[in-house]
Design brief:
CATH topology of the largest domain: Rossmann fold
Number of strands: 11
Strand content: 5-15%
Strand order of the largest sheet: 3-4-7
Number of domains: 3
Mean pLDDT: 96
Bound molecules: glutamic acid
CATH superfamily of the largest domain: HUPs
Low-confidence stretches: none
Shape: elongated
Helix content: 40-55%
């Protein structure tokens, strides 16, 4: 038996940014293709000339590349089934449209807007669901020719069955039945000659040999129309898999008011692509265990359509942010530095400090930040003098009667510590605490506040080593002066 090669596609309409729902559809297609050694096609559905834009196409391409979802065929890559932008495929659609009209499966419709409006009103008055009457079905070829020669611009409609049912065999949802009674002779080409979505998508999927259509649930209701077009053209339809929606935490439709929804926004807010991919994979797919962290390779190995959920996935920014923090903690500091290198503060500090100093600061804070955008603030005290002390910290650690004694002892310790290294600093500090009959924490907390201005930082001794003896002494002295002024 010759197994057909899997060919799937992601077919966004370039009318906006790459939404996380779209990115997840792309990811599922990509994973499915990689899993089955298949081909992942990117096709831009830009037939809506008014709403499509070059800027949006570029944004979608950029977003997919950033996520690491490379396509085997499509814009920029090319391939033997091109062109991959619908706006460049008009001759292909014309050929199939003419075939359907010639076969009598589709027909020109010259009904004006007013005429259609009247039909709609009659349906409303009769409390019937509106369906186009099919009036132009009856036009003879002479009547059609006559109207065409008058310069009238018709739409093309497909002949839909009056009754019966259509069953969509969906790989995720099972068999879904639709009644043809509800379907009218719908438009497959507009009066400007451009195909409608349902027609173009069928022609493209068929002529690009797409084997599996994995797409958003919102297109399930279009599938009966598309199946009718396949049938009319005598073409074999692909297999369908409709992926459930992504809902907001309150289970409403995910929208702008729920914060970032596009890949570009997440990127700008300091999320790593591998974290977003990992998170999106788990939105509606599960391997069966509750493992959270997956690399793309691991996902490819485990992914299959059977494990995609039929119920909507609920989006949870906190989980994504937590995952992102985890990936940041594991990320190489060279990479982190290059990812934040466009930030103005980082640029300034890069000019002031050796690269290695910044890398070490990043190594210390990497596991404590949740997004890249938190990095400048997280390393600020390594690069700037302390402008202010945390208010609660001051009340707790600086207003104690022995605060000045403690910090003065620490200044001495800093001066006397033979090697200014974390391990030795720690030993000395614990010894000093014993001498002063205090707990180590009673030295560590005021020292942390004096050196960083904060109450919550990575390990104090590592911070001290990186700041260096001079800066530690200076900051401890500043803190003593500050406390005396309280
Ligand atoms: N262009 C359609 C959209 O962006 C997708 C069509 C499809 O996947 O069949 O929603």
């Amino acid at each position: 038996m010759i197994l057909q090669q899997v060919r799937v596609r992601f077919a966004p309409s370039p009318t906006g940014s790459l939404h996380i729902g779209g990115a997840r559809t792309a990811l599922f297609n990509w994973l499915f293709a990689r899993k089955h050694d298949g081909v992942f096609v990117l096709r831009l559905e830009d037939t809506d000339l008014l709403r499509s834009s070059e800027e949006s196409s570029a944004g979608i391409i950029d977003g997919l590349q950033w996520l690491g979802l490379n396509w085997d065929e499509g814009p920029e890559t090319g391939g033997s089934y091109g062109p991959y932008r619908q706006s460049e495929r008009l001759p292909v659609y014309r050929k199939y449209l003419e075939q359907l009209v010639a076969d009598g499966q589709a027909y020109y419709c010259f009904c004006s807007n007013e005429e259609l409006q009247q039909e709609k009103e009659a349906a409303r008055n009769g409390k019937r669901d509106y369906k186009y009457s099919g009036r132009c079905r009856e036009l003879t070829s002479e009547e059609v020719q006559q109207r065409l020669s008058q310069g009238l611009k018709p739409v093309i409609r497909i002949k839909a069955p009056d009754n019966g049912t259509c069953v969509v065999h969906d790989l995720i949802r099972g068999d879904v039945e639709f009644n043809y009674v509800l379907m009218d002779d719908f438009i497959i080409a507009k009066s400007d000659g451009w195909p409608t979505y349902n027609f173009a998508v069928v022609v493209d999927d068929a002529s690009m040999d797409i084997t599996h259509v994995i797409r958003a649930e919102e297109h399930l209701s279009n599938t009966p129309k598309q199946l009718l077009i396949y049938e009319s053209l005598g073409l074999t339809p692909p297999l369908f898999a409709h992926v459930s929606m992504i809902l907001a935490p309150d289970r409403s439709k995910l929208s702008k008011r729920h914060g970032a929804t596009s890949v570009q926004e997440f990127r700008e807010q300091g999320y790593l692509p591998e974290a977003l991919v990992n998170y999106l994979a788990l939105l509606g797919w599960s391997s069966g265990d509750d493992r959270d962290f997956w690399s793309l390779d691991e996902l490819v190995a485990e992914f299959d359509l059977e494990n995609i959920s039929r119920s909507p996935a609920v989006y949870d920014i906190e989980k994504l942010t937590w995952m992102n923090g985890n990936y940041l903690g594991k990320a190489d500091s060279e990479r982190l530095l290059s990812l934040v290198s466009n930030d103005n503060q980082i640029k300034r500090w890069s000019a002031l400090y050796p690269r290695d100093y910044l890398l070490q600061a990043l190594r210390l804070v990497g596991s404590r930040v949740k997004t890249l955008n938190e990095i400048p603030a997280a390393i600020e005290y390594f690069c700037e003098d302390i402008a202010a002390y945390d208010g609660k910290g001051v009340a707790k650690h600086f207003r104690k009667a022995d605060a000045v004694d403690i910090l003065t002892a620490l200044i001495e310790l800093v001066d006397n510590c033979t090697q200014f290294e974390a391990e030795l600093i720690e030993t000395r500090m614990r010894l000093q605490a014993d001498i002063m009959r205090l707990k180590a924490a009673e030295l560590i907390h005021p020292a942390r506040l004096a050196l960083s201005g904060r109450t919550n930082t990575p390990g104090l001794f590592e911070i001290m080593e990186l700041l260096g003896r001079e800066r530690c002494r200076q900051r401890l002295q500043n803190a003593v002066a500050y406390i005396r002024g309280l």
